[in-house]
Amino acid sequence: MTPCLSRSGRPTPASLLLLVLLVLAGCAGNGQELTDATPAELPTDPQLNAEVTASFITYRAAVTRGDADAAMAHVTTESLDDQARVVELARSADEETVRQLPAAEQLLVLTYRLRPQLLEAEDPYAALVDAGLAGQDRSLGELGDISRVNEDLAVAEVLSNRTLEPTSLRWRFHLEDNRWRFDLADAQRLVSQAVANSARLSNASVEQVVTATIVDLSGEDVETVRELYSEPPV
């Protein structure tokens, strides 16, 4: 991968989606696994495959069209609780705390701070999804083989968007209320890895890549975005 740099050397990724797609295409790093829930070889279960795949496709489509109700019905309760934690960070965390967050959480915090109306919503994460700011269909890849690790946990291999070849990435799904639900933690680790790899290849800091990504997606100037690290919304 050729680093994407401006003439000043500042990283200018085309978008957060591009960063994630590069990982899924195997172009942005060593492709290390992002989950420790790697199953042993298990027999194929057609019903499991159908249920997990249907939930995943429904989630992807809902996020892409900005349908929070449908998307949130297909993610784990723990994932939603974690999003609520990030919302509180966006509301009150100081500069040092924000800079120490994983890159994916930095991106979320800055996105919320750039759009204070999201934080004023009854459910800020739902507002984020409804605004079309929570991701895109192709940024999560396709599902390959799916194995059931235990009664309430299944793990699916992730296929490259470009070639449909298996990658070393795995998505986890938890059975809650008789529905397989996507664990967003793995996707957030993927984003953090993509940002870290982009920073390394561009000889830049994670903060620079995060800032450049928000600038690219929002059209705001660099200084405005940098100030979001230290200025929680009033």
Automatic annotation (TrEMBL):
Secretion signal, residue range per the UniProt entry: 1-25
Superkingdom of this protein's organism: Bacteria
Lineage, opening ranks: Bacteria, Bacillati, Actinomycetota, Nitriliruptoria, Euzebyales
Keyword Signal: yes
Protein name according to UniProt: Lipoprotein
Alphabetically ordered keywords of this record: Signal
Organism: Euzebya pacifica
